[in-house]
Structure formats: C-alpha cells, structure tokens
Amino acid sequence: MQELAGAGSVVDVTEEPKDPPRDIGGFIRDLRRGARISLRQLAEQAGVSNPYLSQIERGLRKPSAEVLAQLASALRVSTPVMYLRAGLLDAKDNPGVLAAIAADADLTLAQKQSLTQIYETFRRENARTKEDQDVHGHEPEDEDR
User: Fold this and answer.
1) What is the CATH number of the domain that holds 107?
2) How buried is 18 (Cβ within 10 angstroms: 0-12 exposed, 13-18 middle, 19+ buried)?
3) 33 φ, ψ to 5°?
4) With b meaning 16 or more CB within 10 Å and e meaning fewer, what string describes 88-116?
5) Cβ neighbours of residue 3 under 8 Å, at least 6 residues apart?
6) Which of 15, 71, 119, 123 is most buried, with most CB under 10 Å away?
7) Residue 19: per-residue pLDDT
8) Does residue 42 lie within any of the structural domains?
9) Is residue 71 included in any domain, yes or no?
10) CA 31 to chain centre
C-alpha cells in the first residue's frame, strides 16, 4: 500500500482493479480526493486543462500514456500503477518487473518512471525483432558482432 505524500490519508494504489480501462477516471478522482487537492490544482500540476481532467475523471475521455504519466507524477504514484489501471500494461505479462519497480521504496518517482519506460521500450523493440525474425525466417544482423 502506498501513502500519498502530504495527504494524511492512505489510498491503496496496489489493489487490483475490477475493470482497469473503465476504472481509470474514478481511480484518478479517488487519488486526487485522497490527496485533498482540487481538480483545478491537479490539472495545473499535471499540465492539462481543467475541463479535460474533469472529462477523464467522469470517464468521457481516455488519457494518453503521456497524460497518465503526468497525472501519476502530480499524484505521487508510480507510472506503472497508473498504466496498469488504465489497461496500458498487462500485469499478467510482466508482473514481477513492474511490481518490483513500483514497490521499491528506494527509487524516486522519476526513477520508477524512467525504468518503466526503458523496460517497455525494450519489450516493444524485442517484439518487433521477433516479428522480423518470423517474417524473414532468420535473425537480423547484429552490428556489434
């Protein structure tokens, strides 16, 4: 369980959502309320407009990965947690790595976000390489050999 900094109340950000993609707006709203900040304050801290954030919280708009990262930073939760809640990451595919990053108290929020982004970049790159191998029937040449 992670406690929001300066909030005084605890919001369980590790609890498994029932329906992650449709739950993200309510999750963001719960985190914001738990942190005792207004919609306008969160919008300003995350660099998004007040009406846009309101639409996200009400489930009318689906935020991009970039906006989710900005909201995670403003709400002081890890980006992987936000991505999992939004359905951008599948916890079943790589629960160990993402959970370890999210749970590591020795890492700063920025470090957690960087590690998650690097990890996901490598996974996407490897998936593309595997697709190329399947299409061409051989491994691509490695310039470092």
Assistant:
1) 1.10.260.40
2) exposed
3) -65, -40
4) bbeeeeeeeebeebbeeeebeeeebbebb
5) 10, 11
6) 71
7) 43
8) yes
9) yes
10) 14
> pTM for the full model?
0.54
* Number of domains forming the structure of the chain: 1
8 lies in some domain: no
Q: Let me know: does 101 contact 119? Beta carbons within 8 Å.
A: yes
Position 15 in a domain: no
With the C-alpha atoms ordered 33, 38, 72, 106, is the resulting torsion angle positive or negative?
Answer: negative
Q: What is the pLDDT of residues 36-57, one digit of tens each?
A: 999 999 999 999 999 999 999 9
DSSP-assigned beta bridge partners for residue 10 = 3
Range of the domain at 81: 20-136
